């Protein structure tokens, strides 16, 4: 027999749901182009707790350096903050451009960068927190560019770093780069590609190319696997697989 299902349009819970959903259906634009634009904003996501609990949850956390807001301030990653700030100093001095140009370039796309992070907390949003977010993006972006430069030069960056620099040196390339590279592909520890593009344009887009070279530099990150059918990313890598 057919199951009879009746919803009252009165004051009951079912009726309230129907009224609410009918309003939503009437208001919502389900044009595929509109939906595509809505979801295209996000490119960095949090790993659901259910998935983390299936594995070692630490496998989804960076080990050495935080990149972006999700793991910023984690106590075990704080020692690298000093080296991030040093990276900003070296990159800006070497570029010959004032820091304010880098900040302005990132601030212009701050809304897009904020939107890239799905479920980003209120501590980063709003007018009062915009400056703090831009500072984070500039700092982490400069660090990543300097780390990739170190990789491209196989650690031979002694023209503006000391030979015994703990991070940006032959030593750093041999002993730390694999950890940095691995942290770069942690799904919650990503920087939007747009950020690097903005920084590189200010530096000198003829000398620093973002795209294939940078993508290849992280594609061989240790302990990671990427499906050959993975969709194109809007950041360097998007791999939710554990180490």
Automatic annotation (TrEMBL):
<dbReference type="InterPro" id="IPR004158">
    <property type="entry name" value="DUF247_pln"/>
</dbReference>
<dbReference type="Pfam" id="PF03140">
    <property type="entry name" value="DUF247"/>
</dbReference>
<feature type="region of interest" description="Disordered">
    <location>
        <begin position="221"/>
        <end position="243"/>
    </location>
</feature>
<protein>
    <submittedName>
        <fullName>Uncharacterized protein</fullName>
    </submittedName>
</protein>
């Amino acid at each position: 027999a057919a199951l009879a299902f009746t919803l009252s349009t009165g004051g009951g819970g079912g009726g309230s749901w129907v009224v609410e959903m009918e309003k939503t259906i009437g208001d919502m634009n389900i044009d595929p182009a509109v939906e595509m634009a809505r979801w295209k904003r996000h490119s960095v996501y949090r790993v659901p707790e259910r998935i983390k609990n299936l594995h070692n949850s630490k496998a989804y956390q960076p080990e050495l350096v935080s990149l972006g807001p999700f793991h910023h301030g984690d106590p075990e990653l704080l020692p690298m903050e000093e080296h991030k700030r040093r990276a900003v100093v070296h990159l800006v001095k070497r570029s010959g451009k004032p820091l304010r140009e880098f900040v302005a370039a990132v601030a212009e796309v701050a809304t897009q960068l904020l939107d890239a992070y799905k479920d980003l907390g209120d501590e980063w949003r709003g007018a009062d927190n915009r400056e703090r977010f831009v500072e984070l993006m500039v700092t982490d972006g400069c660090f990543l560019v300097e780390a990739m430069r170190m990789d491209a030069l196989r650690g031979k960056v002694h023209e503006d770093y000391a030979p015994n620099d703990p991070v940006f040196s032959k030593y750093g390339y041999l002993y730390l780069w694999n950890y940095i590279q691995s942290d770069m592909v942690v799904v919650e520890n990503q920087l939007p590609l747009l950020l690097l593009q903005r920084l590189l344009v200010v530096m000198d887009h003829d000398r620093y190319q973002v795209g294939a070279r940078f993508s290849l530099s992280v594609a061989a990150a240790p302990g990671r696997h990427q499906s050959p059918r993975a969709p194109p990313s809007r950041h360097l890598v998007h791999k939710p697989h554990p180490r």
